[in-house]
Amino acid sequence: MIFGLPVSLFALQMVSVVASLLVIIFSFSFAIIIGALAFNGILFFALIRMAKNLQLLQTVKAFPKSISNKRNTGFDYEED
């Protein structure tokens, strides 16, 4: 968790910040600068709310709990 966001949502926020900085650098309008700052603020609070509501972020783990190099022989040693 970085700034209250999972890593993927934090990366999305940072991409938005960098894009806004590029817009601010190449813009000549004060309204665009204020709009970019407002957009980043609104996006941050929306992502925080999304991160708190776990139902919106249904993440599935990509890897199993344990990884083994043992050969599977097919024998079941547990009792039925």
Protein model, in words:
With about 80 residues, the chain is mostly helical. Helix content is about 55%, strand content about 0%. It has 2 helices and no strands. It has helices spanning about 5-25, 30-50. The two termini are about 45 Å apart. The model has no long low-confidence stretch (mean pLDDT about 80).
Keywords:
single chain, 0% strand, 2 helices, 54% helix, 80 residues
Task: Give the helices and strands, then pairings.
Blueprint: H1 7-26, H2 30-52
Largest sheet: none
Can you write the helix and strand succession as a string? HH
What's the oligomerization state?
Answer: single chain
Strand fraction band?
under 5%
Helix content: 40-55%
Ranges with pLDDT <50 over ≥5 residues? none
Shape descriptor: elongated
Q: Which class best fits the helix and strand makeup?
A: mainly alpha
- Summed over residues and divided by their number, the pLDDT gives a mean of 80
Offer a quick outline of the entry:
This protein is mainly α and 80 residues long.
